[in-house]
Amino acid sequence: MRSTRELLAREGHLEFDRVLFFNDAVFAIAITLLVVDLRPPAASVYAGTALRQAVPSIIGFAISFAVIGLFWLGHHGIFRYVEAFDRPLVLLNLLFLGTIAFLPYPTELLSQGSASQTPAVIFYAACAAAAGLAEAAVWLYATRTGLAERASPPLRRYYLLRILRVPAVFLLSIPVALVSPTLAPYLWILIWVTDLTLQRRAPLPDPEDQQDREQA
């Protein structure tokens, strides 16, 4: 572990908890902004017509809720092993949180374009991929600078693979969107398919093995 003079916050101190609370707040606000975009219809509009018109927005909300929830789960998982923050890690984490806070905007574009306009689909995929790459940068920096010493090498590889699968799928969908923008969003389902595959082929290291390494 680094000298305490180089650290901004350490586990077990208030400053460390404030960073974690701020992380959760950004995720919560981003999800809330997704709901704000779902506006009720005017009183003069027939309910059935309004619901049909709202389908693209509802689909966009569902996609982004799942994507942001996925990033939150990954972020929560990796920060179980982060023991301290230094300035570069705080800045990388802020960069990642910025990409999360920005996601409601491409979501609105995707909803307005009814997932059939190529620029809207590509822009959304690029923004989501950027969030995934920023999260990977947070994990790589923490594990390579001694700020996540509790994480064993197998566990570091496991979480890195889980993180990178998300931007990989979104980046893969961009050339598909150039050919068929309506097909590209279906490709995003591969995020969950690859997760199931990863759990079978490279499962999370046994917690007892991890604990033994920590006690060794």
Written account of the structure:
The structure is a single chain. The chain has 216 residues and is mainly alpha-helical. The chain has a two-stranded antiparallel ribbon with strand order 1-2. Helix 1 packs parallel to helix 3, helix 4 packs antiparallel against helix 5 and helix 5 packs antiparallel against helix 6. The radius of gyration is 20 Å and the shape is globular. The C terminus is likely disordered.
SSE topology string: EHHEHHHHHHH
The overall pLDDT, averaged over residues, is 84
Measured distance between first and last alpha carbons = 16 Å
* Range of helix content: over 70%
The neighbouring-strand order within the major sheet is 1-2
* Fraction of residues in β-strands: under 5%
Task: Indicate the low-confidence ranges by residue numbers.
Answer: 207-216
Strand segment count? 2
> What structural category do the secondary elements indicate?
mainly alpha
Main β-sheet: number of strands, strand sense, barrel status? Answer: 2 strands, antiparallel
Count of helical regions: 9
Instruction: Supply Rg.
Output: 20 Å
Short structural description:
This protein is mainly alpha-helical. Helix content is 74%, strand content 3%.
Properties at a glance:
2 strands; two-stranded antiparallel ribbon; mainly alpha; disordered C terminus
List the helices and strands and how they pair.
Layout: E1 7-10, H1 14-36, H2 47-78, E2 84-86, H3 87-102, H4 104-112, H5 118-144, H6 153-179, H7 184-187, H8 190-201, H9 207-215
Antiparallel strand pairs: 1-2
Helix pairs in contact: 1-2, 1-3, 2-4, 2-5, 3-5, 4-5, 5-6, 6-8
